[in-house]
Amino acid sequence: MDADSLLLSLELASGSGQGLSPDRRASLLTSLMLVKRDYRYDRVLFWGRILGLVADYYIAQGLSEDQLAPRKTLYRGAPLLSPQVQIKEETRLVSVIDQIDKAVAIIPRGALFKTPFGPTHVNRTFEGLSLSEAKKLSSYFHFREPVELKNKTLLEKADLDPSLDFMDSLEHDIPKGSWSIQMERGNALVVLRSLLWPGLTFYHAPHTKNYGYIYVGTGEKNMDLPFML
Amino acid sequence: MEDSTSPKQEKENQEELGETRRPWEGKTAASPQYSEPESSEPLEAKQGPETGRQSRSSRPWSPQSRAKTPLGGPAGPETSSPAPVSPREPSSSPSPLAPARQDLAAPPQSDRTTSVIPEAGTPYPDPLKQSSDKRESTPHHTSQSEGNTFQQSQQPKPHLCGRRDVSYNNAKQKELRFDVFQEEDSNSDYDLQQPAPGGSEVAPSMLEITIQNAKAYLLKTSSNSGFNLYDHLSNMLTKILNERPENAVDIFENISQDVKMAHFSKKFDALQNENELLPTYEIAEKQKALFLQGHLEGVDQELEDEIAENALPNVMESAFYFEQAGVGLGTDETYRIFLALKQLTDTHPIQRCRFWGKILGLEMNYIVAEVEFREGEDEEEVEEEDVAEERDNGESEAHEDEEDELPKSFYKAPQAIPKEESRTGANKYVYFVCNEPGRPWVKLPPVIPAQIVIARKIKKFFTGRLDAPIISYPPFPGNESNYLRAQIARISAGTHVSPLGFYQFGEEEGEEEEEAEGGRNSFEENPDFEGIQVIDLVESLSNWVHHVQHILSQGRCNWFNSIQKNEEEEEEDEEKDDSDYIEQERFRIYPPGQHGYPQISFHNMLLQSFNPTFGLEHMPSPMASKYLTTYKAISVIS
Predict the structure, then answer these.
(1) Counting CB atoms within 10 angstroms of each CB, which of A110, B288, B295, B478 has the fewest?
(2) CA atoms of B464 and B357, how far apart (whole Å)
(3) What is the band of B368 on the pLDDT scale with cuts at 50, 70, 90?
(4) pLDDT (tens digit, 9 = 90+) per residue, B405-423?
């Protein structure tokens, strides 16, 4: 979620039960600002929190102007050197974050648009999804380079708008049903939770520009997903 | 500077020029009226020499002594202030943008457009243009800064027009800028269709025809979408000037798309609004009822307070502490849950109530409340199990009556372990769930041991609907409400902890052996508890204890020996009491069947009887003591 709207976003994503304590929130605000200044990022996202046995990691990501460019990930926490395993925990942490990002980081349709020159930009005229759109999985895209777009048939491609539909939508995620989509507070908030990576919560308030995602969890993939559905 | 003077110019023009001026002044930016000024141009052109010229030339307000460009070309030099013009000529002549110069003339001279435009028109002779250059040089200097911005911002505008006719192009540009400039001044609606009064008097000139052709082209409806460019451009400019976004030129294409999309969606406005907002309103209504219900009941305040203190937990306070730990649901949701709990306590005879937690589901979530009813006020459960048992017995009898052709199976399924009584063991508390605060609370059925045993083996998501079936292997006996209840029981038994000494057992009730169903299951808060240091609590786990009974692998908290029932059945066959006693003891060791171990032969059973530790691994230590004694007794005897 954007560092600028951190407090609001945390309140909206709190339905999952995992949040941040007030002191953490306050310190996060300031540290995210500092990160933004020092690294000169265009946007800084608070990615989430990975729970560990002894302590937790707080992860932030920085985005440059081109939204789809590879992101820099920063963490704060105490990496342990676990004696049993050969891998450094830091490496494992980075790979987990990368996996989660590639798998379940999502964006509503229309929030980014692609210019003919290549780089993607934040769409300043994005006014939020409508209610009927918000309930459909096809209105959300994976926030990463598209993988399945080329496999679409020509008929499907004809319906796409090349400036908006340049990422994979959630509709074709395998296994089907790996996303739980719910409306909270009446119809004022739509919350998507990933069942493949439990702990990833995405929220969006329809008809507004507010959206964001946060991961709070142990960093474990739910391999039992097909059996649990 | 320029802005301030142009309104003044406007007003003065209005007064002096009369009606012909009105269409232009009334323009908002929303409607770049290309054609209109042009249509009135010829009028102006005609009228200019008659009336406007002199009036315009005599502008007392013009401090910059702008030269009024008369409509007639030769009238140029007659302008009121030729002197200031000439010295500026050379300086302005190197102006690089030829069309731009003429463009520049338009914005600062809102009142002059009438005169300038016809100059730009092709039918006018060149001298006029030269004079117009001169005129423009003046405003060029006077409005340098603004003109530049206009220049730059309006560079792309020519692309819009796409006219090959340069002069016409220029004319349109000027009108556009004139419109843009003027919209700040006046807010009156512009009537597109309003013809310039007096226009009928004018014979159609070349310019007019060109203009009308252009307008007709713009108004041509697209065969694809039913739009026309004229309306689209006017809508877009309206939107831009209303919203005033930053760097509008960068997002111009997006705005264009949005306007087109908005045109479509408007048709379904009425329907969509109804549908989408209804559920929102419904939930809001229900939650409003939540907020109101506290005030409606004005019954015995004292009585209510007493009960309320006991029954209702301080959810907000606990939420505060949880928030410090980073766990929580958000303040307003917690408050709504508190109100819903209050509603629950008001409608049911509840001794004690606690917010147990929230379970996330696929379609909907569950909010769970742990409740203890007042003494003797338990709601009776439908005795479904007894019915089932009777049915089973009936079936087995029916089988026995069949002819003995087929080999009969001697297998008797191990008898189902009965559930624990209410208020004991896993059924100590009653649980209520609802999907959202404001929705009605639903009571969950008590849990039976078989459900817990199976729940330990499967892993399924909750959908959010209590009547959903659970399809799994091993098959779960029940639907989602049973599975939910079983999971709640398991979670409570496994994770509800408290610091050592916080709770203490109630008064000792006689000897342990007399208690058939594992005693010491009632605890209460220890009034003498003084708290433990945080350091101690954090460093080791020995200061924490479970205060909920552990659920045995049997699925119950209190050991149920189903062999006892078998003993009663076998009593009929037994003759001697001694042998009975021995048999009983042997059967008592038979519990492996209850643990899920494979059935063993009678011989092995005896062998196992010597193992005093047999079966103890599954029992918590307070229970073990009781059975140790019995096992020891067994080994002695046999």
Answers:
(1) B295
(2) 15
(3) very high
(4) 777 777 777 676 776 666 6
